[in-house]
Specification:
Length: about 240
């Protein structure tokens, strides 16, 4: 059920972890996920994942996910006698102050995610045989999914940089090109944020290196190689700034 009242109410509240987990368990079929989140307990990563899973059952704009939350519980975890508490906070970004470029990134990212979800569903509906027509359909869907994934790999670190570090990307970054003023952009960051940015680039570099293995020579592979070069340059630059 989309936009169930209890889900919308949870987003408008303090977003208690275990209350949200209980709500999610009534709507999702991902029972292993809810069990895993329950086992991990309220942490920043767990709360972000819970928020994301609940958000998918709404038509709320993506920026509502990014609300400052004191990750503590007013209710005990099921099977425990007292609530668990953690004081990790998610980054606060007032939705009204989010730059239009970030809103555009969020919109495009959500659209690509929805396209991938539908494509995966269609892929599973195609009979698993070697008939030429079915093979062509599977290949076409796989190519689309790979293309959308590559674009999402560009957008994801850009939106995360804004919500975690307050960095607004420039047009070149959004288009997959290398920005000219990276050093100036990073120099005012604290050492902690520089290290976070460095680790983010390392993660993205690893993902893109895996993706390029399955691409044949052509524009799409060239774009991935461009991203690899960019990530490597930024990693080298940030390494020099944190040393």
């Amino acid at each position: 059920m989309i936009n169930a009242p209890e889900i919308l109410t949870w987003f408008e509240s303090e977003r208690d972890f275990y209350q949200g987990l209980e709500i999610l368990s009534r709507y999702t079929s991902k029972f292993r996920l809810t069990s895993k989140l329950k086992k991990k307990g309220p942490s920043k990563n767990s709360h972000e994942k819970l928020t994301y899973e609940l958000w998918k059952f709404t038509t709320l704009p993506e920026e509502v996910r990014y609300k400052e939350v004191d990750i503590k519980t007013s209710s005990a975890a099921p099977g425990t006698s007292s609530p668990q508490t953690s004081h990790t906070k998610q980054t606060k970004r007032d939705p009204k102050e989010i730059p239009q470029v970030i809103k555009d990134i969020l919109t495009e990212y959500k659209d690509l995610y929805n396209k991938k979800t539908k494509a995966h569903k269609k892929l599973h509906e195609i009979p698993h045989d070697n008939l030429p027509g079915h093979m062509d359909q599977r290949r076409e869907l796989a190519e689309q999914i790979t293309e959308w994934s590559a674009r999402m790999e560009i957008l994801y670190p850009l939106k995360e940089d804004y919500f975690n570090n307050g960095i607004v990307p420039d047009t070149k970054e959004i288009n997959g090109d290398n920005p000219d003023d990276s050093e100036n952009k990073y120099k005012d960051l604290s050492d902690v944020k520089k290290v976070k940015k460095l680790n983010s680039f390392r993660t993205q570099l690893s993902k893109v290196k895996k993706a390029i293995i399955y691409k044949v020579d052509g524009p799409k592979k060239d774009e991935l190689q461009k991203r690899i070069n960019y990530y490597q340059e930024q990693i080298t630059l940030l390494n020099s700034l944190v040393e």
